[in-house]
């Protein structure tokens, strides 16, 4: 099978027996954030020109004089030149139609230079020592034309007869995987149809207190339990693999269960998959509700990927496509390769799928190699479009020093930066001594310790990732109920990063901070799905009324997948700039050392302004399409401030947001609560109606749970008008006072005008 070439021996998540190496200490910085991080790479041709030998080739690198403009691309293609992958900075791999095309290209005013793309440049540095030798290597061969199946081409190029296990990836037809000798490899790279040969990743595996640490319990208490959300998981297996005998915490939770590692057998012999699934959406049925997952009302699409030989069949396209088709818009993946920050084939495959499905949020464990130092984050956590999750400690001091300080990043949690200098992980969440569901088939040695027959403790970034996936389900439910029916993954990332708790750690350890779900649903946001092109810009205004807490403004976008021959992964480059009320200019991610306006990020597809002690007033925000070779580029913004007008408003009343909710209350569940966000001051109007012989009341609370209005008469329907004199979050409670059941319809009208 194809994915057998992507597999490696299964290793346990918990590596507590490893000898702890000394982690280099991050020196304190004078800036707002900690870390030795350069956000601005020198503009250069980011491709490895290993050979300078002159040669005749149809394949060339066309370097432009500046940020890519659409009319430039059209003018090049009008000459009969075929453009392929984008290469930072301002270059494309291309194929000439005729030999005279090179001279025609060089006459264009915006062409910097045209150089041959040599064969050795196609080979990843880690494979070059194998060239010309008999030793077999496992590789992926990347073709020039994304529409052409490479299997026949690769097979025809083999001269030594040593080619084995040749198959084309379902994920991308222009990529074929095979085992071949170094001599065959040397023949393959001579082809004008081949642009890259890269090694295959070797993928391996990577709660009650955790919910409190990231404030998931606060969302649960107000009704955000993952209802209406479907979460996909790819892992070792799920308990017995049969719904009839499944762990009680998963009864009624499973929408789909696929066995792709061992045909017909989705059981969990290891225990890892059952544990992470329980942290996401276990109902706690076997513990009388004590050990619930973050989102117990969500549903599960599960792919069992452990093979007979304990390898992992990580068929990215199949896993993500089936989960997506089954309704999953969140995916949790606690496995990867310890490849020291490389943008690998699996990183590319994740980015490709997420670019094509921008409403799918994928979370990936950072890895458990942090004791070896920086740049230990593994792929596919190095992908641009996923949320890479590291682990903090839990609050269980009786289990030792790795679970006694919730503000410490776990010493084994893999660190950034990526090999090309991007900030990863994106954020952190509790990952040590996590109690969750235990597979009936798993041996006790696979856990930190057993709690009982149904639950056990495990440690790792795998656990942190599962907790975050459940948290994302809670936040996504909130967004759905706020009218965002198809929120982008970029929006969810921007919200989570803007609201994260700063742990005073180096950003190579903590990313943008520890998740805080209670703060997440209090952010203000925009999901700009239309997108912008090179030189286009959009402006916004944000007001700060409370200067006692940090101001965060986060720009995130789902980027086009990088070329596997490029040394830098960013393709579409947006820039975030903010002007403070006193006129000071700030650049996104330039918060490590003052001044904060002298570096412009050209590495990351997340940019943030973070001000520890903001001044009150209005901040001007600009999002610019600096270089968009594969556009237009959609994006999302989230802030802890408030949207406002950049200028004085024209006379007139602010518009309102009108929503209708349908639900039911019973004696067993006598009330339902809804959270609304008032973006401006104004009137809240509501009515609730029902048909049954019952009495229903309605209440309105501020964010601190103080009751500010109620309608408790015997009227039918109940109606209420409330003057909201502050912006922010409010809760509306529908409560059954008399009767067995009431199926109600709640209508709300409240101020929610967003101004650009």
Describe this structure in words.
With 756 residues, the protein is an alpha+beta fold. It has 13 helices and 37 strands. The strands form 9 sheets. It has a 7-stranded parallel sheet with strand order 11-12-10-13-15-16-17, with helices on both faces. Strands 25-24-27-22-29 form a 5-stranded antiparallel sheet, with no helix packed on it. Helix 7 runs parallel beside helix 10 and helix 8 runs parallel beside helix 9. The radius of gyration is 27 Å and the shape is globular. The chain starts with 58 loop residues before the first strand and ends in a 5-residue tail after the last strand.
Quick overview:
The protein has 756 residues and is of the alpha+beta class. It has a 7-stranded parallel beta sheet with strand order 11-12-10-13-15-16-17, with helices on both faces.
Layout of SSEs?
Layout: E1 59-64, H1 70-77, E2 82-87, E3 91-95, H2 101-106, E4 111-116, E5 136-143, H3 151-157, E6 164-168, E7 175-181, H4 182-188, E8 194-199, E9 204-205, H5 208-213, H6 216-221, E10 230-235, E11 254-259, H7 272-281, E12 299-304, H8 316-325, E13 330-333, E14 335-336, H9 345-356, E15 361-365, E16 387-392, E17 427-430, E18 434-437, E19 449-450, E20 455-458, H10 461-481, H11 489-498, H12 507-510, H13 517-520, E21 524-532, E22 537-544, E23 551-556, E24 573-579, E25 585-587, E26 606-611, E27 617-627, E28 633-639, E29 642-643, E30 656-666, E31 671-678, E32 682-690, E33 695-702, E34 707-711, E35 718-724, E36 728-738, E37 741-751
Parallel strand pairs: 10-12, 10-13, 11-12, 13-15, 15-16, 16-17
Antiparallel strand pairs: 1-3, 1-4, 2-3, 5-7, 5-8, 6-7, 9-14, 18-20, 19-20, 21-28, 22-27, 22-29, 23-26, 23-28, 24-25, 24-27, 30-37, 31-36, 32-35, 32-37, 33-34, 33-36
Helix pairs in contact: 7-10, 8-9
């Amino acid at each position: 099978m194809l994915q057998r070439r992507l597999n490696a021996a299964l290793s346990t998540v918990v590596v507590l027996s490893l000898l702890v190496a000394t982690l280099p200490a991050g020196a304190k910085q004078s800036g707002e954030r900690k870390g030795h991080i350069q956000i601005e790479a020198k503009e250069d041709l980011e491709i490895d020109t290993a050979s300078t030998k002159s040669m005749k080739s149809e394949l060339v690198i066309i370097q432009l004089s500046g940020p890519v403009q659409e009319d430039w691309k059209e003018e090049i293609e009008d000459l009969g030149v075929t453009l392929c992958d984008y290469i930072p900075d301002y270059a494309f791999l291309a194929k000439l139609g005729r030999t005279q095309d090179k001279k025609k290209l060089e006459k264009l005013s915006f062409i910097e230079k045209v150089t041959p793309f040599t064969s050795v440049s196609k080979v990843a540095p880690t494979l070059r020592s194998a060239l010309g030798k008999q030793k077999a290597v496992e590789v992926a061969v990347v073709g020039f034309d994304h529409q052409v199946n490479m299997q026949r081409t690769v097979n025809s190029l083999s001269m030594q007869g040593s080619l084995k296990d040749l198959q084309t990836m379902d994920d991308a037809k222009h990529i074929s995987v095979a085992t071949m000798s170094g001599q065959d490899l040397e023949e393959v790279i001579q082809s004008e149809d081949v642009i890259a040969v890269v090694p295959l990743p070797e993928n391996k595996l990577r709660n009650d207190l955790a919910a409190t640490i990231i404030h998931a319990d606060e969302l649960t208490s107000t009704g955000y339990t993952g209802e209406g959300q479907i979460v996909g998981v790819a892992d070792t297996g799920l308990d017995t693999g049969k719904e009839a005998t499944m762990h009680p915490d998963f009864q009624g939770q499973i929408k789909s269960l696929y066995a792709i590692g061992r045909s017909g057998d989705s059981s969990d012999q290891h225990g890892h998959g059952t544990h992470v699934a329980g942290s996401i959406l276990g109902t706690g049925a076997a513990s009388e509700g004590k050990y619930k997952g973050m989102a117990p009302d969500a549903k599960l699409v599960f792919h069992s990927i452990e093979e007979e030989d304990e390898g992992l069949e990580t068929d990215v396209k199949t896993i993500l496509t089936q989960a997506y088709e089954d309704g999953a818009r969140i995916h949790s993946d606690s496995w990867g390769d310890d490849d020291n920050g490389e943008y690998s084939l699996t990183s590319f495959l994740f980015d490709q799928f997420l670019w094509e499905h921008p409403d799918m949020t994928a979370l990936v464990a950072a890895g458990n190699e942090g004791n070896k130092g920086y740049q230990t984050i593994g792929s596919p956590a190095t992908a641009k479009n996923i949320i890479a999750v590291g682990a903090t400690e839990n609050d269980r001091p009786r289990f030792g020093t790795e679970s006694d300080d919730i503000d410490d990043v776990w010493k084994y949690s893999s660190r950034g930066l990526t090999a090309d200098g991007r900030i990863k992980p994106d954020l952190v969440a509790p990952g040590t001594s996590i109690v969750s569901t235990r597979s009936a088939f798993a041996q006790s040695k696979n856990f930190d310790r057993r709690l009982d027959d149904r639950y056990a403790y495990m440690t790792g970034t795998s656990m942190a990732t599962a907790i975050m996936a459940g948290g994302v389900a809670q936040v996504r439910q909130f967004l759905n109920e706020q009218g965002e029916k198809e929120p982008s993954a970029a929006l969810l990332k921007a919200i989570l990063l803007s609201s994260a708790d700063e742990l005073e750690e180096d950003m190579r350890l903590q990313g943008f901070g520890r998740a805080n779900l209670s703060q997440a649903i209090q952010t203000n946001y925009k999901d700009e799905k239309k997108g912008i092109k090179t030189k286009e810009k959009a402006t916004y205004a944000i007001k700060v009324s409370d200067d006692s807490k940090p101001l965060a403004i986060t720009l995130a976008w789902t980027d086009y997948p990088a070329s596997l021959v490029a040394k830098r992964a960013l393709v579409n480059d947006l820039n975030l700039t903010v002007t403070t009320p006193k006129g000071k200019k700030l650049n996104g991610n330039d918060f490590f050392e003052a001044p904060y306006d002298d570096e412009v990020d050209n590495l990351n597809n997340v940019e943030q302004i973070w001000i520890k002690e903001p001044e009150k007033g209005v901040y001007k925000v600009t999002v610019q399409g600096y270089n968009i070779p594969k556009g237009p580029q959609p994006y999302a913004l989230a802030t802890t401030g408030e949207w406002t007008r950049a200028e004085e408003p024209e006379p007139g009343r602010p518009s309102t947001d009108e929503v209708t909710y349908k639900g039911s209350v019973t004696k067993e569940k006598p009330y339902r609560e809804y959270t609304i966000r008032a973006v401006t001051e104004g009137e809240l109007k509501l009515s609730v109606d029902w048909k049954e012989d019952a009495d229903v009341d309605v209440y309105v609370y501020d964010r601190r749970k103080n009751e500010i209005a109620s309608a408790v008469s015997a009227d039918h329907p109940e109606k209420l008008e409330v003057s909201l004199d502050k912006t922010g979050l409010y809760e509306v409670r529908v409560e059954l006072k008399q009767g067995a059941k009431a199926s109600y319809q709640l209508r709300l009208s409240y101020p929610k005008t967003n101004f650009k």
